[in-house]
């Protein structure tokens, strides 16, 4: 079963001091394009996360994000109360000596002064990272599930489009014999319009056969039929087939284009145009296949 490169996964866990949310979003891309954003708290595990995502997501433009909300009364930023009080007294004394007004908004002024806010580094123990790692796995699992659902929809679409092309290929057949007769008639009538023109009928028949063989599309039909079958087989052979399906659709396009250039018949050309339309829809969506 094929998978889409498009997907989204989100998972949340609440720890003792913080709430951790993990989001993973994936779009189509020729290669793996991985962007990882995580707080400094977990930075030491970034390579571990990157390796895991690279191994399991394979391909796509992947945006990975961890964000943390502190819960409870504890925070990593602590106010240095002694220093804040010292700054307050000094500013008040300086204002008195200089005869200027004290700040209208004391608090915002004081908090901007050096070292009033001090950051206490936090350490992540094994139990906390295990919980975060489990949350990452849950988000990844959701994304993979999303990819499979999208893949099932793409598979259904491809089967429908392949069936349509196959049916249109059959619709061409009744026009082929008619086309040969029309070509013969048109050339013969053109020759008869030339007064006092004599020609070797045997040579004319040889040239006619050669010309009609040049317009024969049986080989293109056979190759296109094989490509249609191969596309379906490849689609059923497992995930990670996106590039291969893209190559097959290109080969299908070559055969359809050649039939169009050889058709020399209005109804056949109309059918070829409809086949091209079906194939373009396949090519557009195959870009999303993993």
Automatic annotation (TrEMBL):
Residues 2-155 form the Endoribonuclease YicC-like N-terminal domain. InterPro entries: YicC-like_C, YicC-like_N, YicC/YloC-like. The keyword Heme does not apply. Its EC number is 3.1.-.-. GO terms for molecular function: hydrolase activity. Its cofactor is a divalent metal cation. Keywords: Endonuclease, Hydrolase, Nuclease. Residues 173-289 form the Endoribonuclease YicC-like C-terminal domain. NCBIfam families: YicC/YloC family endoribonuclease. This is YicC/YloC family endoribonuclease. The lineage of its organism: Bacteria, Pseudomonadati, Bacteroidota, Bacteroidia, Bacteroidales.
